[in-house]
Model the fold of this input.
Amino acid sequence: MHLRGQAQLAIWSDIKPEQETDYLHWLTREHVLERVGVDGFLSGRVFRCEVADRRRFFITYELREAGALAGPSYLARLNAPTPWSQRTMPILQNFARGGGPVVARAGLGCGAVVVPLRIDLEAAGLLTAHAQQHLVQRIAGLDAVAQVWLMQVDAAATGVPTKEKSMRRSEEGAFDGVLVVEALHEAAARAAVDALMSKELASAALADREVFAACFQLDRRLAGLP
Done:
């Protein structure tokens, strides 16, 4: 039985349009399957958007608990990248990565589109459980929003040096929270973000606010893993 994970890993990266075919094949035919096979990883979801002359991707993995981020199974994979991964890591641009416990969640199901926001939890006034849950419940109650979740980054776990990390040309960036709005369509996602920006996150969002469309999902059951 697939149980709701208590943590997430969130990853952003850009590639050039001419690199997209090989990149998508790597993701869907090797990389996500490899990651979902790691102890403590439950599922992986890939989202995509077009930004000017780039293709931008948001990938999130659902984890049984945050300890999987620094666990031996995951670190073993990060320190032994496949040949395909060794070819792919250096092309990733504007790379950002952070993982940790999900501290608040509201809503039901998964949306067709998502807006993942890297945020400063202190600037957003989201350091208490009450404030965190109040925010996600309010946004999840908006029209055509499926669910909202807030993850607090475990900097120590996601900052462990690895071979994969050394192969990437861009730094992972620094942020301590990720708020993800999952909606049924783009208009609802943008309306939800507009509501956030008019109040809590006006000065706390740390990056662009793109809407990403779902393009691939895999969980342990679909991969035939226990």
About this structure: The two ends are 9 Å apart (CA to CA). DSSP finds seven helices and eight strands in the chain. The longest helix spans residues 20-36. The chain has a mean pLDDT of 91.
